């Protein structure tokens, strides 16, 4: 297959050290708290939490323990994501004890693998005769995909290839079972994931057979006859999940049309976003113009018509899915944490195709809002669902709100989100910079130091900032030898005004290029750059087609979306509206929620105390002036249970 040349590359995670600030704090939390905590969860050592049994399943499959398989059919993937998160932490923060534990898990995985390469504890332990017979529901290829990603990450972090060898053997088995040849199955994953994983495996090994298999899975989806219906009939119409109905499942699986003809985000949101990431990967690696156009179409629909202001995706609990354009309810939003993580993957890949800042704008929105909200400040509780409006009494009383949890949970029976968030935050250093030939892109702003090569010379770059709370960013080169290259500083779409200095000299003739970057081409040796991104508090309005947000406004400062909580503003948040001329002020509160910038303003609130009209009345409610305080949306529900809202009424 033809490869696209001069592709954008991330800087190796080993060469980026996070120093301080929000992302460094979250990365440290994953290393010191989340990974050990999730290890306890995988071993059923958390009291009063949903059992996982994931490690025990591998012990049973390996013959080291006796018992029955327990958990979801995709329980193996939690172990894979834990290993991947561990790999990223080992890359940037070597830890012999953690590496030893990971090696032991990898040994266990190898012992559980069958001689022919098959690897899935559910089917090894519980239903050995049903292998490859229920792709629609049972996640065999999905679990393999996550273990492939873990294997690639672990090899890159440690140089150890045992897990890589295990997964190459597994993929060889998969390739022998699936393909266009007459003697092979014509199926594809019920839950997409292996497609993007196979591209990672190709990029590491250079073996084209992995690209070929990924392309087959993409192109086979949506073809007639409908494969999942065929295998359902071959199983005598027996289901794994009682409510499965192949006749209505095509959109759910993004199999309603051949992938290259799809132009709208439909069905299960996480599956869709993993597939879109795989499409973008393949388009880049193979220079496939048809797939490239598909990626652009799906990006536009997903982010311009079906994305929440928080970067959340998937508006309905039914199928954890997209619905229709502009249908974005706040109080029943599903917006699974995994969907925000998957959007980050998609955005990163689109940026590798075309270095437009708009892709990083979406990545940043999803990261700071829709993803971070999935984990508590202490790293030990998690949201699966991330609504934009919560009233606890309603959520507990109404069946159509039962998916909305009013507080984060210690663990889940279906625990895909916690380890997904862990692997994202463990790898966050790889998203900050990217480079190709003679161009360096600064995509995210956070305190760090990075080392890399440009034109064969060593480059050292130190970034100092308390972004996203402060406007000022310092970037200092300390290169042994001056090197000429193009430095591209991302100017976020939310930033309307910025200032730039180089070696304390104001640069006034700066222009943002057509891709949203400030490009500076010169020799870089021992220079200090100061970039100020102005961060006024902004009132954000939704497209009028979003009926739930008509006559409402949200508050945003920089990349951070804000929310009101009951603990700061009292009950009945729906009665609050911004004043006609709100005095929106931001201040940093070091003692609140591990240090955040809060927004304070004057507002109005309908007075229920003096209401004399009964349930309904011709009397117009009176509005009383009040002061409100908004906190970052991601940080809500860290100070107890109460109401929360992102969107406020306009007066």
Report on this model:
The chain is α+β, with helices and mostly antiparallel strands and 651 residues long. It has 4 domains: 30-254, no CATH class; 258-431, no CATH class; 433-533, Golgi alpha-mannosidase II (Immunoglobulin-like); 537-650, no CATH class. The chain is 35% helix and 18% strand. It has 18 helices and 22 strands. It has helices at 22-42, 54-61, 76-92, 96-112, 121-125, 135-138, 140-158, 162-177, 194-205, 208-220, 227-234, 269-286, 289-305, 337-353, 357-371, 392-397, 417-426, 566-569; strands at residues 9-10, 16-20, 389-390, 433-436, 439-442, 447-454, 457-465, 472-477, 483-490, 498-502, 505-506, 517-524, 528-533, 537-540, 552-557, 560-565, 576-578, 585-589, 596-606, 623-632, 644-645, 648-650. The strands form 3 sheets. Strands 2-6-7-8-13-10-11 form a 7-stranded antiparallel sheet. Strands 15-16-20-19-17-22 form a 6-stranded mixed β-barrel. Strands 1-4-5-9-12 form a 5-stranded mixed sheet, with no helix packed on it. The longest helix has 21 residues, at 22-42. It starts with 8 loop residues before the first strand and ends with a strand. Residues 1-5 have low confidence and may be disordered. Residues 440-535 form the Non-reducing end beta-L-arabinofuranosidase-like GH127 middle domain. This is DUF1680 family protein. Residues 15-429 form the Non-reducing end beta-L-arabinofuranosidase-like GH127 catalytic domain. Residues 537-649 form the Non-reducing end beta-L-arabinofuranosidase-like GH127 C-terminal domain.
